[in-house]
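General statements about sequence and structure are easier to judge against a single worked case. Part of our work consisted of pairing the sequence of a single chain with a tokenised description of its backbone. The amino acid sequence and the backbone structure tokens for this protein are reproduced below.

***
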Amino acid sequence: MTAEGHLLFSVASLITAHKLQLTPELAQGDWLHMVPGVLLGALLPDIDHPSSIPGRLLRILSLPISKLCGHRGFTHSLLAWLLLMVSCYQWIPMEWGIPSDLIQAFLLGYISHLIADILTPSGIPLLWPLPQRFCFPIIRGKNSKRAERFIAVILTVCACFLPAGYQLDFYHQFENTIKYIHYQLDMRFPI
């Protein structure tokens, strides 16, 4: 996936997260914090590729990471994302005054990059250091840039049409599903 594709996909993810109110920070955050955060996060996993945008800007980090892990290695895993999340919340001094909505958007951008790369034929080692690659190859072939744009635009349009304040309450949905199944079983097989 190209840098443009990752940037578009991250913005679609941010709009979705905002509309679904995934966290209070993303639901009520300042767009001037969240947009740069999600864009930076969307590019960071490619620091393992010296020719990428972050690889060129931070060559001193990119070259050793590339030699140690290769492209789409460690930086494209849940372990890297979890370490980044812990780093953001544990090691960044409070005195720096980095807004929490920017941090959450940054982490969202990073995970959106991983999800977008799963949509390519080569996939990613999501459970690194395990070698298994996860992929759901929707984006492939010579017109992959068009496909990336198309998917990102569709996701953005769908996100924009989500009703404001719509919440995904997975716990209650799961609980209601279990109750429904119990009710159906009790109706069909009374004791």
Observations:
- The CA atoms of residues 48 and 69 lie 7 Å apart.
- The first helix runs from residue 3 to 20.
- DSSP finds nine helices and no strands in the chain.
